[in-house]
Write a structure and sequence with these properties.
The structure holds 2 protein chains of 2 kinds.
Chain A: H1 2-8, H2 17-24, H3 28-41, H4 54-62, E1 68-73, H5 79-85, H6 92-99, E2 101-105, H7 114-126, E3 132-136, E4 139-140, E5 149-150, E6 153-154, H8 155-164, E7 168-172, H9 173-178, E8 191-192, H10 194-197, E9 203-206, H11 213-226, H12 239-242, H13 246-249, H14 253-257, H15 268-272, E10 341-342, H16 352-375
Parallel strand pairs in A: 1-2, 1-3, 3-7, 7-9
Antiparallel strand pairs in A: 4-8, 5-6
Helix pairs in contact in A: 1-6, 3-4
Chain B: H1 7-31, E1 43-48, H2 58-66, E2 92-97, E3 104-109, H3 118-122, E4 128-130, E5 136-138, H4 148-152, E6 159-160, E7 169-170, H5 176-180, H6 186-190, E8 196-200, H7 201-214, E9 235-238, H8 256-267, H9 272-294, H10 296-303
Parallel strand pairs in B: 1-9
Antiparallel strand pairs in B: 1-8, 2-3, 4-5, 6-7
The chains are: A alpha/beta, B alpha+beta.
């Protein structure tokens, strides 16, 4: 197996990528294809891919010395590793292992037990201050973090050790970025992300369940080439992959704008590929690049593409918290192309019944007022009328008819 | 107070008041000629609905530039979908569909920034002003929400904030802040096809006429709407269908400010007319009251009843 052979024959010293590719017999064509994929994944805001042609990227990348990468697994499902190895056209797993120098990776490495522990310790010591530490999976903190142990040591301690000497830490996947599934209610292990424990280090969060493998590669290779990390947002996510939300670039956006929504899974609209907003798609609130960079390098291989609403797997406030099929509010504004204001706007109408009823009520009040007023007699001595008797002084509290106090003036 | 006035005094009074009013009216009329001339630096927008594709990019651009929220009432919170200009919409694209065919065209509606606006003369407190470059701007600290501008505008542009406790009037102001920074208005800047463009009025009028000349029969009546309507406006329209079909009213070439001035800038200036009328009526009421009070003792003696008032 070429992968295994490349691991076994890995040189003691890191060579450049070009040297390595030549050594392992990886075709130039495959490498150029890889560079094109990288450019598609990171079309802007990444210095490495900011070139006109894949050949230019390949030339730049070829000179880069392979970065040593130590990959730690904590409370993970290994999905983020799998995503890196999914692409098979070309044999990317092989290519990836040639482009980076994977010093320690529990799933892929040949050794185990003592050998593995030794490999980790050696790699940390040899490349101290130079290696990129990729963390996959969340770190338990409850009860001194006993819920995940590596060679008998709690994950928190391993992270502190290995992370401390890393040049940069990449938190791969939602679990490492903010806690992921293990942090969902009731979070029995107190799972947190890397940034919650090592906030002062240079950390890049790549949330997603799993994230796109090219996002990881873009960050790692940029770091290897220039020693810099791409521009990050306030949640330490690289802007080139996470600055826009799914809704902005969704291929089904035209259906949203025209009001064509799937009402039930399997209905006519679902078969036609209509918008999944009413099925609880979290696309409008989820920052990720999935709508343009699908998975497995096959177009439409992504949740919405296969007819499942986005669950917002990159967002801490949504994923595994907001129910999958709960409809969310849209916060951005847009103009639907299919509806226009008419030349003359419709005016509101008052119904004739309402006018009639109000008229009746007004008339009744007027009539009652008139009838009541007739009861007030204009004759001075009329005793049958309500109110005070004539001739009585209103200030006179002893009251009683017949008192002529007014005439006393 | 004036209890008795003899005939001479009354006559003199009337002549005096009448003369003042007449003098002021004739003086005011000179500032608002029947056919105003645009200032040399007057800016304008030219909208050509044969180019407009109805993309509505100008609508969110306007909302953003003016800090207005989206009007999502009709879409249940999803989209900005106003049915007309309103307190959240200073600029709107409307669709005209020919009744018996599938022909259609769009029209962009916003303030026309008339050369002599009816709203400016109609405003009793001068909140609306014809500012630099001819943009009609609105000063929120002077507006009292009386809606005279809404009533006076022949294009039905200013809109009242019905849903606010302290309502004001909202209308397009030609992106005056952006003009001051040497930028185009937001709608003209964002239009992807160049259906609405910005420039000096003289240049855009010439451009419009050039378009008419080079494609005769393409534009309705081969003329530019806004060249003379209501004395001339600073938003010019070229349309392939009749202007009244797309909601642009048929107007004469006399400026509306010219008509309105006679009333608003004299009788209603600072509400002086109504205030004077109130003073006059007040004096009448006072006279009647005093007479009533003078007659009170007699009345009480005659009826034996205390006066109810």
């Amino acid at each position: 197996m070429s992968m295994l052979s490349s691991l076994i024959s890995s040189p003691k010293n890191l060579g450049t990528i070009d040297q390595r590719l030549e050594q392992c017999g990886v075709s130039r064509r495959s490498f150029i294809k890889f560079c094109s994929s990288l450019m598609v994944a990171a079309p802007f805001a990444l210095a490495l891919t900011d070139k006109l042609t894949p050949e230019a990227v390949a030339a730049e990348l070829g000179r880069v010395i392979r970065p040593p990468v130590i990959w730690l697994h904590f409370q993970d499902c290994t999905g983020c590793t799998e995503t890196l190895l999914r692409p098979s056209h070309p044999d990317l797993g092989d290519l990836i292992l040639n482009v980076i120098s994977l010093e320690y990776h529990e799933t892929l490495m040949a050794g185990s037990g003592r050998q593995a522990e030794q490999a980790l310790a050696e790699a940390v010591q040899k490349y101290s201050g130079k290696y990129v530490c990729v963390v996959e999976g969340s770190i338990p903190t409850k009860n001194s973090g006993i819920y995940m142990k590596l060679a008998g040591r709690p994950a928190m301690d391993v992270l502190a050790d290995v992370g401390e000497q890393a040049a940069a830490i990449i938190a791969m996947g939602s679990c490492a970025a903010w806690g992921g599934i293990p942090s969902a209610d009731p979070a029995p292990t107190g799972a947190v992300g890397v940034a919650d424990l090592l906030s002062s280090k240079a950390i890049v969060n790549l949330p997603g369940c799993p994230p796109n493998p090219y996002t990881l590669l873009g960050v790692v290779l940029q770091f290897a080439a220039y020693g810099t990390l791409p521009e990050l947002d306030h949640e330490r996510r690289p802007k080139f992959a996470y600055d826009r939300d799914i809704h902005e670039h969704c291929p089904r956006r035209a259906h949203f704008d025209a009001g064509r929504f799937v009402k039930q899974f399997g209905d006519e609209g679902h078969r036609e590929g209509w918008c999944l907003y009413e099925m609880g798609c979290k696309g409008p609130d989820t920052h990720a690049g999935c709508s343009t960079r699908h998975f497995n390098e096959i177009p439409d291989v992504w949740p919405i593409g296969i007819g499942a609403p986005c669950i917002g797997c990159t967002e801490k406030s949504i994923a595994f918290r907001v129910p999958m099929f709960q409809v969310i509010q849209i916060h951005t504004t847009a103009e639907p192309p299919a509806t226009y204001a008419p030349i003359v706007a419709h005016q509101g109408k008052v119904s004739p019944i309402a006018t009639g009823l109000v008229g009746l009520a007004a008339g009744a009040l007027a009539g009652a007022g008139y009838v009541a007023s007739r009861k007030f007699s204009s004759v001075p001595d009329d005793q049958s009328v309500p109110g005070r008797s004539p001739g009585e002084d209103p200030r006179n509290t002893q009251g009683g008819p017949g008192k002529d106090s007014a005439r006393d003036k | 107070m004036i209890a008795q006035m003899n005939r001479r005094q009354a006559l003199l009074g009337m002549v005096g008041i009448g003369g003042t009013v007449a003098a002021a009216v004739t003086a005011g009329a000179e500032e608002h000629p029947a056919h105003p001339v645009a200032a040399p630096d007057a800016v304008a927008m030219l909208y050509d609905n044969t180019i407009c594709t109805g993309c509505k990019a100008c609508m969110p651009a306007c909302n953003e530039a003016n800090g207005l929220p989206a009007d999502t009432l009709l879409s249940g919170g999803l989209w900005d979908m106003p049915s007309d200009l309103n307190s959240k919409t200073k600029n709107i694209i409307k669709l005209y569909e020919e009744p018996d065919s599938s022909a259609f065209c769009f029209v962009k509606r916003q303030c026309m920034h008339c050369l002599d606006p009816a709203c400016v003369t109609g405003c009793p407190f001068g909140a609306l002003e014809k500012s630099r470059w001819g943009a009609v701007t609105w000063n929120s600290s002077l507006c009292i929400g009386c809606r005279y501008c809404e009533v006076g505008c022949p294009f039905d542009v200013p809109k009242f904030e019905w849903n606010k406790w302290n309502p004001k009037v909202v209308k397009c102001e030609f992106c005056y802040d952006r003009l001051n920074k040497d930028e185009q208005p937001a709608c003209t800047a964002v239009c992807p096809t160049g259906a609405v463009i910005f420039g000096k009025r003289t240049d855009l009028l010439a451009k419009a006429k050039e378009r008419i000349a080079s494609s005769p029969g393409r534009y309705f009546e081969n003329r530019v709407y806004g060249e003379h309507e209501a004395g001339g406006t600073q938003v010019l329209y070229l349309s392939k269908v009749a202007f009244n079909k797309i909601g642009l009213p048929k107007l004469g070439s006399t400026s509306l400010g010219h008509y309105a001035t006679k009333v608003s800038s004299v009788i209603y200036k600072w509400f002086s007319g109504p205030v004077l009328a109130a003073c006059f009526l007040g004096s009448l009421i006072r006279k009647n009251w005093n007479r009533h009070e003078a007659e009170r003792p007699e009345r009480e003696r005659a009826t034996g009843l205390r006066d109810q008032l």
